[in-house]
Amino acid sequence: MKNLQEIIDGARRIVFFGGAGVSTESGIPDFRGVDGLFRQQYDGLTAEMMLSESFFYLHPERFFDFYRAHMLHPEARPNAAHRKLFELERAGKLRGIVTQNIDGLHRDAGNRLVYELHGSVRENYCMDCNRAYSMDWMLHTGGVPRCEKCGGVVKPYVVLYGEPLDKYTCMGACREISGCDTLIVAGTSLEVEPAASFLDYFHGRELVVINREEIPAGERATLCLRGGVAEIMGALKV
Ligand code: NAD
Ligand code: ZN
């Protein structure tokens, strides 16, 4: 912790690269951690299968049942890690959050410099007329959600397995990673591509890894901390 505090004190441009582990302490399960969704089966199907682009088009009813039951967490609130990142941004030290999370909790905490690589459950759009719908609206629908204006299918603004990432979000994220002096990688297994390879753009001084288990980026890290992201980030002084 002392080493992390020294790195943060000496940093001028910090970027935080996070994954599902950042939100487990807010009550949202991750995918590959010990209680992760990928460890379970749903009628013989895995979460990865059901969150794929092909499954969405072939079995929309089942997709939306799974999506509402497992991807939407309206009760979740930002934890100590989200709140500390807001303090760091307000202090002018944090230049960006690049997140694989879709839960919207960084924005809830007040951060503005957020690159949501995989989209957000907070946004939904009609596939025909592009009309926008909230997460609350989605929660109160059943079956395949239909647009109130034109009857088109309303699709969550979430990148499904097999779908490309948004070009402008990727460009912004890579720009921030390549220009920062300190990169904190936290709560991610780094198993999802292309997100994981964004770390190759980092050429700064300090690479900090915070995770409950060992991950590949640990080998390149100047500091590796094993433990809960919220607990570790929450203890920092800004
Ligand atoms: P992952 O599930 O593959 O890996 C999570 C990693 O974080 C694991 O290594 C786990 O040990 C670690 N971890 C879990 N809780 C932690 C904690 N409190 N402190 C420290 N480490 C912790 O997650 P990923 O790498 O982000 O990839 C999963 C994909 O699933 C992403 O693309 C993301 O879009 C999606 N996802 C998002 C959410 C969310 O929005 N909250 C939740 C689940 C999955
Ligand atoms: Zn419509």
Write up this protein.
The structure is a single chain. This protein is α/β, with parallel strands linked by helices. Helices cover 29% and strands 18% of the residues. It has a six-stranded parallel beta sheet with strand order 3-2-1-7-8-9, with helices on both faces. Strands 5-4-6 form a three-stranded antiparallel beta sheet. It binds nicotinamide-adenine-dinucleotide (NAD) and zinc ion.
Give the structure's gist in a few sentences.
With 238 residues, this protein is an alpha/beta fold. 29% of the residues lie in helices and 18% in strands. Strand 4 (119-126) and strand 5 form a beta hairpin.
Features:
9 helices, binds nicotinamide-adenine-dinucleotide, 18% strand, binds zinc ion, 9 strands, six-stranded parallel β-sheet, alpha/beta
Shape: globular
Give the biggest sheet: 6 strands, parallel
Quote the distance from N terminus to C terminus. 13 Å
Output the helix-strand order: HEHHHHEHEEEHEHEEEH
Question: Which molecules other than protein and nucleic acid are bound?
Answer: nicotinamide-adenine-dinucleotide, zinc ion
What is the number of beta strands? 9
Mean pLDDT: 95
The percentage helix is 25-40%
Round the Cα radius of gyration to an integer and report it.
18 Å
Poorly predicted spans: none
Which structural class matches the secondary elements? Answer: alpha/beta
Q: Assembly type of the shown chains?
A: single chain
Query: Strand content of the residues, in percent?
Result: 15-25%
DSSP helical segment count: 9
Spatial strand sequence of the major β-sheet:
3-2-1-7-8-9
